[in-house]
Amino acid sequence: MATKIIYFTVNGRPEQAEFPVDCPSQDVKGKLQSNIILFTDPGPHDILKLYNPKGNIINISPRLEPNAPCSCYKLEVVAADCSNELSGVELAVTLGFDLSSMEKRQWEDAEIMVLLQVMYTDLDFIATFNIEPEVLQHFLFEVYRRYNNIPFHNFKHCFCVTQMMYGLIWMTDLKSKIESIDLLTMLTSAVCHDLDHTGYNNAYQINARTELALRYNDISPLENHHSAVAFEILEKTESNIFRNLAMDQYKRIREGIIKCILATDMTRHNEILNKFKSILPVFDFKNKDHKDVLMMILIKVSDISNEARPMEVAEPWLDCLLQEFYNQSDTEKLEGLPVTPFMDRDKVTKPSSQTGFIRFQHIIDPVRKALDYYTEMEKALEREKQNRAQNEKATKSKESLRLSHTGSDAQPPPGPESSKTAVQ
């Protein structure tokens, strides 16, 4: 069996690991973990980060390039202790988090896991669905472990998408419009939407005939894989945040998460957007099909929300994305595969990549316009309610006035004096 050896350092100490070239990514991480145990005291939820000699985060996978002792990778260990029994909000306050600075601060990974816990707590999912805090923490740790160390589609991207979804839920007052179980589905879909992303898109998976493409018959191989990994995590009792739900509730959430994650495949963009536009004039929150489409649109909006963020936040993310794109196009050239045009480092610049993305298949602008139309529709509905209430109030006032006027013209009932006269 062919193997490869990689050399790396941990806290300045040189180490090496050998593994089969075709083993799963988790086995590679296990090999690195076993080396760490020899000279450190790791916690049960250690998370690994690997950097190349240039200081860039790289994916821990069998694709790692063999190196020499003189060009070691650098391995970092993030100690993640999930024994804290405080609630998410209490943890945030204890740690001095300013949630309003989410976009501009460079959060550490352990802090991000606490902030995700805060979101579940703030939306009242903990109490409503009987989610034990320690189970939520285990779930988030497992999710963290299954995001790879790649330039863009990593755990911090997961956080950005989830934070946008969390913001949209509050900004559009969805808590008053759809059930909490659907909000839980949406937030969890955002958390899980890119689990175990390889850094190579569906076009590459299909052209290279990867294991994922073969497994899912070229149909959204990445998105199907993200969803499958999510439910692998949820199959474990200690990390199943839905374990206290009734079977029908679990089935509903599972169906919703699969729909939402599969909706992030950009090849389905026009299909989903056109469906959303077609139902807008008659949109009804009580209609399940309408609600499902809205949920898919919201996770899509969250996924491509980088353009909506301040430039000082958006631009570094663009650099990360381009690095991932260039890595793919370089690999495509080396393997003799069709080169994805918008990833070719010889043809794409930072400005052209963004204007191209915004224009490409009319991705950003139509979604914004559709949501603007949705917002205007909501405002119109609210105005209609206010007008109806005013009309009803005016009608009642007129009716009261009419009854009052009619009463003044009628003969008064006999009083005591007239009764006495009649008796005499």
Q: Care to describe what's here?
A:
The chain has 17 helices and five strands. The chain has helices spanning 25-37, 88-94, 109-122, 125-128, 133-145, 155-171, 180-192, 202-207, 211-215, 221-235, 247-262, 269-279, 288-303, 311-334, 350-359, 364-409, 416-423, and strands at residues 3-10, 13-20, 47-51, 57-58, 73-78. It has a five-stranded mixed β-sheet. Strand 1 and strand 2 form a beta hairpin. The longest helix is centred in the last third of the chain and has 46 residues, at 364-409. It is elongated and about 100 Å long.
Brief synopsis:
This protein is α+β, with helices and mostly antiparallel strands and 424 residues long. Helix content is 56%, strand content 7%. It has helices at 25-37, 88-94, 109-122, 125-128, 133-145, 155-171, 180-192, 202-207, 211-215, 221-235, 247-262, 269-279, 288-303, 311-334, 350-359, 364-409, 416-423; strands at 3-10, 13-20, 47-51, 57-58, 73-78.
Shape: elongated
Q: Report the sheet-strand fraction.
A: 5-15%
What strand order characterises the main sheet? 2-1-5-3-4
- Number of helical runs? 17
The secondary-structure class comes to alpha+beta
Reported for the largest beta sheet, the result is: 5 strands, mixed
Radius of gyration: 29 Å
Top keywords for this entry?
alpha+beta, 5 strands, 424 residues
Compile the SSE list and pairings.
Blueprint lengths: L2 E8 L2 E8 L4 H13 L9 E5 L5 E2 L14 E6 L9 H7 L14 H14 L2 H4 L4 H13 L9 H17 L8 H13 L9 H6 L3 H5 L5 H15 L11 H16 L6 H11 L8 H16 L7 H24 L15 H10 L4 H46 L6 H8 L1
Parallel strand pairs: 1-5
Antiparallel strand pairs: 1-2, 3-4, 3-5
Helix pairs in contact: 2-3, 3-5, 3-6, 6-7, 6-13, 7-11, 7-13, 10-11, 11-13, 12-13
